[in-house]
Structures are given as structure tokens and as C-alpha cells.
Structures
1.
Amino acid sequence: MIERAAQPPASPADASTGASVVADNRVTLRKLLVVTAMMFGFGFALVPFYEKLCEVTGINRIVKRDDHQPANTQVDTSRSVTVEFDANLRSNLPWTFKPLEGSLKVHPGEIGTVIYEVSNVAGRAVTGQAIPSYGPMLAGQFFRKIECFCFDKQELAAGETRQMPIAFVVDPSLPADVNTITLSFTFFEVAGRSQAGSSPLATASAPATVAAPQSKIQ
């Protein structure tokens, strides 16, 4: 029978070395676990940090709705201008045409809005084009139309009534002695889809300028 050689007993130094290695491994493992936990925590903390950063810098505004309208810092609240509204029709246009309010007081730089109402009293579709004019004449240089039915032809079916808004701004550089502006619109009949190929007498060309009613100019 083969006898195994007897193993020499472990020395106290070897036992001490092995215990030290085990202890070092445990310390290293604990450090790795702490570092891993900190990395996960930092990753989660980045989410609100990134959202706040985007909110402050506006980076994420492309995909997020902005409910705050920019303030108009050019409104001159130290003065007011009265804008009077007038409506006229070329004699051959079978419409009724009027503003729903005769005047509106605004501060220069402030957006104003007024509604005009037009009705077609003819038994056929009619297309019209509105031409604006101003009183006094120099007011036209300081009157900015943001939205206006005069930008496009308006075609109304027989008996149709339509309300059309106009949004405007009076430039703050308007001379200080001008306190009232008269905005006048004159509608002319023009060729529309229903009038294509009709007689030239069915349409009327609008003049380049229309004089505003002088009785309303102050």
C-alpha cells in the first residue's frame, strides 16, 4: 500500500497571510459595492438635474409646449390713441358692411382687435376686396395690421354673412400730437371663382388710394 507523504503543518505566518488576503478581498468587495451604488444613485440624480438644466437654458423647448406668452415691452402706457373704424362699399357691390364697434382706445404698442361684419344680399356669389385708408394720412406709416381681411379676396355665397377680425398695433413712434386715427375700409367687387370668364362689367378695379372720411379726423 502506498503511503502519502505527510503534509507539513501550516505555520502561523501562512495562516496569518491567508486571513489578511481574505480580509483585503472583503474590503475591496465592499468598496466596489459602495462605488456601484453611488454610480446608480448619480445616474438617477442626473434626470431631475437635466430637466432643470433644460428648463433654465430652454434646450428642451422644442418638444415642450411653452404656455408663457412673451411680454410686449414696447407698450407706451403713458398715452392712449383712439382708433375709429369706418366701412364703405363701392356702389355696385351688393353687400352690407360695418364694424361691430365704432372706436377703440389703445396704448401705442398694444395689440388691438376689432370685428367687421359683411353680408351678401345678392342672389349670387360675390367676391370683394377691401382697400384700407387712414386719417390723417401720415397715420398709415405708424399703423401695423397683424391680421386683416383686406389681405385676401373675400368670396361670399348668396345670403352669406361673415364676421372678419382685424388685429393691429399703433407704432409707439406715432407723433405725440396725433391722438385719433381713422381706419377706413372700402370694399370693391373683384373677379372671383364664380365670376371667371364673365363680362368685364361684372368687376371693378380698385383705385390705389381711397380718401378717409374727413369728418372723423381729429
2.
Amino acid sequence: MNNCSTELQAAFEQTRRYFLGQSGCIGLGAMALSTLMNEACNADDNQSVAISRNGQGLPHFAPKAKRVIFLTQSGGPSQIELYDDKPGLKKLAGQKLPDSVRNGQRLTGMTRGKPQLVMPAHSVFRKRGQAGATVSDWLPHIAGVADELCFVKSMVTDQINHAPAMTKFLTGHHLTGRPSMGSWLSYGLGSENRDLPDYLVLLSKMKRGSDQPLYDHYWGSGFLPSVYQGVKLRSAKDPVLYLNDPEGMPRHLRRNMLNGLNELNQIRYEETGDPEIETRIQQYEMAYRMQASVPDLTDVSDEPESTFQLYGPDSRRPGSYAANCILARRLAERGVRFVQLFHPDWDHHSRLRSWCTARCRDTDQASAGLIKDLKQRGMLDDTLVIWGGEFGRSVAGQGKWDSPEGGRDHHPRCFTIWMAGGGIRPGMSYGATDEYSYNAVVDPVHVRDLHATVLHLLGIEHERFTYRSQGLDFRLTGVESSRVVRDLIA
């Protein structure tokens, strides 16, 4: 009886899906396949075209930015050592953090129940550029481009541990299963290059091993179709796994095989209306085109010596943060919508003075070099660059506050990011923290507000940008109050 019931239910589901497919989905699927097949027939045509697949008529208005490069500093860089100068902390060194400042702030298990003693900055600050932004001497190259940057010193989040905080920073929600910002933009705006994915991810290959994981859901598509997820570009012989043909297979044979496979997938799609089949068709075609486009992208032999000098000595090491910054610029030149770099190990619970300076050396010159490079190529105006991590660090020392072995614990109540280009107002410092760099007290900017502002710069009204899943209309900025921070926009 149960087997019979199951078979009847399966038949009903098949019939229902077939009916729904016949009533509209088949036409869309056929058009999608037709478009892909036409592109395949012209695989050597390098003309860039804007491809948007969501049917929402985006952008809603003229954008200031066309693309995003997100320099993600994973682990929580210390705003106290890098950007948020608090000279008064020297007089408070070693004193207990007042309860009125902490105000019940949750602590991690590493410092809960331990004395919260003030540890002043280990670095020296100077006012930089005509705008007088405060930048640490640990970041001399970023200090040199300070007038191109907009520092947001009042960022706040509500997550205190790495994985949920980074998930919140990138997807708008601390639980996994939501699309990342790059996936939302892939869904909403598509690409200007049909030979590369809309969303590409570059992970730093560290000189030493890293014990900080970077989870795939950070660049995942969540409930969006998987065609919108980030594609990881590796620093290896095969930059994208399983992309290359077996040795000896001619290109025309691969083309014929894909044509036949796409026809079979289309038949199955007409029977079921399953959108993942459309994704499969598109991904096969994208992989075919990437077989030609990726080697050209990753071959930097055409870059002049001046490029490597600009990005720093580590830029010749494949997979380094500096080398990935060069690839990010090359991807932006090719019209990729969202490029995300991940550099881990900013998590300095101890040995802050040596550990944080090492991460600065990894990233400082290359980050500044990217800004200079985009500007000299005329690309900074319509490329939005974002630098930042998931939260900041606490003013209370972890371990002995007056020891070189001391560090800082996680801190979500205030941290600093910077942005440049893409319609952002340059030479500006926005928001402020209290005298302890513990609470954002002037113009706090929640992660949701950052998302709303980024979408706005790309011509998207965040409250109208939705995707229906499980009967709900989801959006990147969620259902809680969020705002476009218009003071940041030029």
C-alpha cells in the first residue's frame, strides 16, 4: 500500500510539474538554451554583453558603480592599531574598563570572567593627506592614498564569533543558507562578460599554514539557483577544478558533446520544470567558454614590470594577496561584476604587535597599489573597492596588557572599514567611537546599512530587490530597519 501510494504521488508530482512546465517554463527554458547555443556557435566572439537573468528590470536607476572588488580581511583587524586613533588611552593604560562603557557587552569565552584592563594602541598614528585621516604607521602605503578613501569608523554588527560574524558581514544573516552579496549581485545584474562568471573568489595562499577556515558558504548562493554562487579561482596549475578537457580531446568534440548533453537536459527540463537543470545547462556552457578565458586571465606575462613594482615584491608569488589584487584588476577590466579576495589570520588574540604587523605587510602595498592602478586606468570612478573584516578588536587586553605577548579579543560594537571609487566620497572619515574605541557613538553604520548603500551605488533599491523562497520574499538587507548612508555618496 505504501509503495503504491508513493508511486501515485510521484506520478502526480511528475504530471503537475509537466503541466506547470508546459504552461510557461518550457518557453523560458527553450529561450535560455537557444541563447546559450547561439553564444556557443560564436564562442570566439569576444564582444562583451550585459547579461541579466532575473527579470526584475534592474538596475532601478542609473548606477554610480558597475562592479565591486571586496578586499575581505578575515579575522577582525584591530581598528585601535590601524585607523581609530585614541591617544587618551595611554593615560588609562592598565585601568579597568568602566562598567558604564562596557554596558553588559557580551564577551567571548576567552575573556569572560577575566579583568578587562585597558591596553593602548601599540602603533603610532599620523594625519594623512589633505583630509587629515588618521592612519597607523603600520599601513604606510594605505596612508599614501588616504585622500582616495572613505573611512567608516562606526561600523557595528551583532555577532561576536568569526563564522557567524563573517556570515552576517557577507550575507546579511548570521545563519548559513542565505546568498552572499556577490550572489545577490550576480542574480540582479548579471555580467558584462559572457566568458567569465559574474562572481569570482580569490583566496590568499599564505606563506605559512593558516588555522582560520574560510567556509564555502561565505560565497555561496544560498536559496538562489547555484548558477549565482561564487567561483573559486585557485593559485594552481588548474585555476578552476575539473575545467580542462582530458588530454587529447579536440575542442570540436567537446562542443559536439555539449550540444548533445544540452539537448538531453532540455528534454528533462520540459518534463520536470526543475530550475537546477537550467543552471546545469548554463554552467556547462560557461565552463566551455572559461577553458579559453581563464588561461588568458591568469597569464600575467603581459603585465609590465611597473605593475609588479606597484603591487609589491610579493606580487610575483602566485596566490599571494598581492598577486590576487592584480588578478582582481584584470577581472574588473573584463567586466566581472563582483570580485572577492579573502585574506585570513587577522585574529590576534596574542602577540598583537608582531601578528598584526605581519598581516599589514601582506596587504598594505597591494591594497594601495590596487587603488592607484584602477585610478590610472580610469576605472576607479565606476569600480567600488571595499576593505574590511567581520568585526573589530576590544580595547581590553587579552593576556597581559603591557606585554608583547598580549592581544585583543573580538569586538562587534565598533570597527572600521574603508571604501573607494564607485561613487563613494573620497577623503572622508565618517562616524566616531567613544574615547575607548568601544562603542560607536556618532553615526553608527550597521552591516545592513552597508549592504543597502552598496546596492544603492549599483543602482538597486534594496527594499525592492527580492527573491521568493519558501513562500517569503527575501532580500539582502532582511526585514529589520536599514538605510542607505547617503553622506558616504559623492
3.
Amino acid sequence: MVAAASVVVAVGTAAGLISALGDGRGADEARPEVTGSLRLEQLPVVPSPSVNSASPSAGSKRTATLAPSATRPARKPHTAPAATGLYRHPDSQVLDWVRAHPGDPRTAVIKSRIADRPAAVWFADFTPSTIASRVRAVTSGAAAQGRVPVVVAYAIPGRDCGGASEGGAPDLAAYDAWIEKFALGLGSGEVVVILEPDSIAQADCLSESDRGARFASLARAGRTLKAADPRARVYYDAGHSDWNPAARQASLLKQAGAASPASSDGIFSNVSNFHTTADEIAYDRRVLAALGGPADLGAVIDTSRNGNGAPADGEWCDPAGRRIGRPPTLSTGEARIDGYLWVKLPGESDGCKGSPGTFSASYAYDLASP
């Protein structure tokens, strides 16, 4: 099966971009144990005005305690987010490498083609006491620049079916509580939320009852996020074009609340994978058509490593010959396609060019080379 391992290979490596994990090493050393994309300093609950240059971090049963907003704007025929400028957080593994290697002949290419591009910020740890302030650090930094952040919630119990990216919350009740705290950090501005990569496409490893409980929790999560910030755009896991057939994926998505405007703005696909943008556009439109729901449901596609498409042999672990894809944007010009995003940071290993989630300059250079 061409699927899960190619999407998430380690804690946060799933799309491994910028990860915000607390690991108990102290305020100045907090880094994800696997993805390590970002250093996360413990920030105050209300960030200082200089938060625009602060560092972020990497990833049910309780009903959301946040009341739906009475001021939520009416839904309109499908449009992408109003703002088109995506947020690039100022701290990541690739930026660390660029700053530390000014004389390396690869630096200019890696900086201009990867490090200077906006990327997602992952929250892949289960740390309820700090998650709100760490999410707020990212969203506040983006708001200060008038840009749209992309954040990834990645703490669902049973993550990666016990594979290399296993972890997450201990149970769904704890996950619900974590999501409520995550939602408190969203603020009131535009933000794109990638909700739990692999959680739906890879759910076959669960029993029928456990799958139903997970999907109910994901539906609650979407409602909680959108109630906290009516301008948040929440996208659900559609796998990718070489995984589940569109009709089956749509059926699973519907069970998880992805067709409901109270919880969803649509779907995401190709996270940490390599399938071409054209294939993903076609697939996502088929999924959306089968999903039903409001006409303004859309899709976002991870284009970080799909410039040459997927390897013919199905290799998913740092395969050779890949290239970065279309630059991140929220203005695609394609019907029902809300954005091309870099959810997996090019150069962060799947586990073959280095430990999962660690940055490899040689891999990054290969991906970024014209």
C-alpha cells in the first residue's frame, strides 16, 4: 500500500516542516525529538509585541467548551482565503543550517529556494499546559506581519498505527482537551489548520468502534477550532491520489465531519508525499464532489517535494531524483483548490538521509537544484 509510511515517518515528520515540540530540555533547548524543525522557547501566554520573530514549535470525547461565534461570516460560493501572503516562521532547521554555513557552496540555493519560503508549523507533542501559548506565538507572529500561518495539529491517539510516528495523546478524551487548548491559541485572524495527517486515510488499522470514535473526535476538533476562531480554515486528511479511491476517502471524510461547515473548510492531500500537483488537483476535486457539503469546501495540496512526481517504484523514504514543487501560495487560480502549501519541509529526512525529521543539507540541495 502506497500510503502511511510515505506520509508520516516520525513524530512530526509526517510533513515535517516546522515543528513545535516541547521535550523537557528547558526553555532554551526545547526541540522536537524527531522532527526538530523548530526551537521552541517557552513563551508567555500573551506574547510580547516582538512575537513576530519568536520561535514556534512542531504533531475526545469532551464536547468543546467554546461557544460558536455569533459574528461568524456567512459562507459564500467557494473562495480561497482572503489574504494570499503565507507566513514564514523565522526559526527552523533549514534556517539554522543556512546561518551556520554562510560559506558553503550550497547555501545560496538552499536559502533562496527553501529557507526563504513559508512553511507549516507542526505541533506534534502532547503538552496541554503549553500548547495554547505556543500556538499563539505562531499566530501572533503571523498577524504582526499581516500574513497567514499554517499550523498542523498532530497528536491523535494511535497515530501512525503504532509505526515510526507513533505517539500523541493517551486517549480521545485527553485529545479533545488538547484540541481545546490548541484552539485557544488561534487568535482571531486567518489561519490554515492541517488537522491530523493520516488520521483518516490510514484509519483501517483501527477496529470499527475505534475508528468511529476517532472520527467523532475529529469532528469535534473541527468544531472546536472554528468556534474559537471563525476565520480559521480547517482541512481534513484526504491521503493522496495513489491511496484510497476518491469515493471511499470521501465516505471516511464525511464520517469525520469534513462535509460540515461547522467543522470543516475542506481537505488536504499529498502531505509529505510526491504526487504531481495535477494528479492531486484531479483527485481532490473527485473527493470533494463525492463528499458533498457546501460548494465552498476546497482543498490544499502539499507541493513541497512533488516537482518531479512520485518515484515509479513507489519509494517513499527520501527517494532520489525528487524536486521541490510549486512555491507555497493561497492564490492558485484553480477552482476549489485553496492553496499549495509546504507542509513537509524540503530537506528534512524521512529516515534514510538521516534520522527521521532531521535536516540533511545534501538532500535539501538535491531537491532545490534546478
4.
Amino acid sequence: MSMTDASRPLLPPLAGLCSFAEAQRSELSVEECVAWMKRQHYLLVRLHEIFTSRITAEPLFELKSAFSLHAYYCAEHASAFRQRVSELREPPLGLEVIPHDSLKLLCDEVLAAPSHSELVVGIYEVIVPALIESLHQYQQTTNLLADAPSMRVTRFCLLEMQDLVTFGQQAVSSLVDAATRTRLAPWIANLQRAIQSAGGVAGRSLGQPIAMPEPQFSAKPYVFDPVPKRDSRFRDSYNGGVNPEAFLYDDRFSARDKVLMMFYKRLREIDVPEMMASILQQTPVKPWKYYRDMSRQLWDEARHSLLGEVGFVHLGLDWSQIPINFTWSLNLNTQLEPWERHAVLFFIEQGLMPRTGKRFEWEVGQNSGIPLAAVIQDFDWADEVLHAQIGREWYVREFADLNEALGYGDRCWSKVMSHWREYLETGLTRHSNWWPALYQAACDRWKTAPDPAALSFNTTYENTRADLKGISASG
């Protein structure tokens, strides 16, 4: 039985996507949509490059962490745009082609920013807002029904780009004073001029042609700095006076006490993004999915570090009072080739898969009486399973089998010289044992007496690496 118009339910038309007026737009053809999206894709790819290039040498912990997250967002959204362009009758895709020299100059200038003050202004006040404006314009111009798949891509991208701006506004407010802003005003004007010279991000702006501005910071090409930098909260970063893995796997110590050491290990994981950023920056061109997958892992490792910070806050302890060592990322970045670093990364990940690895840490958290520790380790374990899968896709497949891949990773790690004795003899550190003071402070918070055996723990990294195998201690 058919319903008359009078009896038909008043449901949203067109699957709720848009109005009939919006579904009748005819301004953009498929070709024009593709050209526009390629420009948005270009900015996302370049933002990913800018973020990953600056993680290692950025001292501020909060910026290292945010750049790790924002690089991952950009990798995800670039992937979505690549997929959408591939659906729109566009072989070959041409996604690696620079859409306009002025957009290249814009990104080159921000990439080469001499300090984080210029960097956050260039990213969060110029490039990302320009991208957001372009995404809004696209939504207001394209046919919302015919081009509905592109609308999903732009909607999700807008959501997270707006998150970037929210973070960036606070970062700029904190890092850029009035004098700095005055000094940067001509540079900011040149960045905006570069966007105008390109016809806007969309390339559709009408009016008098505007000449491309001259390069300023990018007149000297940017060079990636592989040496990790830390802010003033990270004291005594060469200190290898405590081997937390030796404590963690010692049956004499309680699960509760081991959680304190696990929180330290999680916080220390900021060295993994510092190292992975060097792989992304120094590895020859790979398929885009490689960058997406590796950026996910890089962000996960930064997130683990933040969870370690949360653990210290949960226990009421100040992590800045203890050394957070950075020599793992320092030594890998300066002693190994990118492929060798990847080999070490996978070897470590695979070593975390057996029962004595991440499952063991989760069980420690479960038995500790500290529920947050169990949650942190539960998700940390899940992440590491994913990371092992990423390693199998992008690393193991280059070898005859898993054993050959693992053997190579072990050999690469064995090549790394710890310089433990050298750091001591040159005065970079005294390798002090910071554990007793931290443990005593935790026991005071717990209102319990310290375990004498745990309090006297004094195993260093002088002759053993994190998997408790021997290492070369000097250069």
C-alpha cells in the first residue's frame, strides 16, 4: 500500500546529508575537486614533515609530545585524501607533484624556522589556519551529495586541525612575547603573501597576481638535527647509574615497588620518538603507508611517555628530580644508519612479545595494588603488539625470515657503544644512583617502610643494555 504525501513521515531528505539546494551546486567538476584536494594533501604531507623533523631537537617535552601527535594526525588525513583522490578517475595520481612553488616556499620557511617561537607561529597561526579555511571553503563549494565521500574526508580533517589550532593558540601565547611578535611581523606577512601568491590554498583566488616572496629562513636549506635536546626539567641526561630492567626482573622485589620503576621506564620512552623521527627523516622515499604506520607508532611511544608522567603525578612524585636518560636515542641516532636503527627498534619490540615482556609488566601492574598501573600496562601491551605487526610489514619482509631479521637487529644493537665510562671521565655525568631517594619518597607517600633490599638496589648500565645483554661500554 503506497502512502500519500499527506501521510508520508517527515524524514530528512537525501539521507540527511544536505538540503536540496546544496545538492544542486554545480560549481566544481571532478577535475577541480581533485586539484583542490591535492593542495590540501600537500600541506598535510609538509606539516607531517615539519613536525617529525623537529621532534628530536625540540627541547620542550610538551612540544615533543604534541608534535608526535600532530604528525600522526597529518599522516592519517593525508592518507584519507590520497585514497579519495584515487577514487576520482585520476591515474596517475600525481600526489607527489608540488602544486605551486609558493606553497612550497611557505612550508620550507616554517620547516627552517630557527627556534620554536617562529615554528609554532608558522605552524599554528599560518599553515594550519590556512588549511582550515580551505577545508571550510571546499565544503561550502562542492556538491554535498555528489561529492559526499570527500565531505567525510574534510569533516574529519577539520575536526583534528581545529584541535591543532586550540593547542597552538596556547603554545604561541606561552612562547611568543610581544617583542618576538613584532620581530616576526615581516616574516609572518611574507608567509601570508606566499599563500596569496599561490591563489590561496585552493588555488582559486581571483584578482591581481602577487609575486612570490623571497625566502628568508629557508634561504639556507634546513638540515635535520639528530641529536636529542631536552628542557631544564631533564637533568643529568647522560646518567646511566640505574638499570631499571634489572630491578624489574628481580624476583626479590614487590610488584608495588616495580611499578615505580615501570613509570620511570614509560616516561623515559620519549627517547623512542626522538629516534623514530630520525628514521622518518633520513630514510629514502617509501610508500606513504610506511609514513602513516611509523607515525602511528611514533605517537604511541610519545603517549607511553606521557602515561609515565601521569604515573608520577598519580603517586605525587616530581619526575624532574631524577635523571631521564637520553643516551639510547643519542647513540642510535649518531652511531647507526636509519635502517640499522629500525632493526634495533624491531628487535626490541619482538623481545617484548614473550611472557617475560609486556605481559609480565601488565601482570606486575595487576599485582601492585595500583589500578592505574594495570591500565597503563594493559594499553602499553596492546600498542606493542601493533608495533610488532608494523615491524613485520616494513622491516621483516626485507629478510628471508623472522630469525634473520632478529639476528640483524641484535647485531646492530651490539654495534652501539654506550660510552658509559667516557661520559663519566669527561664529566658529563657521575652516574649517580638516583633510585634510593625516589624510592624513599614513594614509600613516604605510601606511608610504608622501604624494603631494605629494594632501597639498596645499585645495578647500572655500565656493562648491560636494556635487555640485560652485554654492551660495548666505550668508544
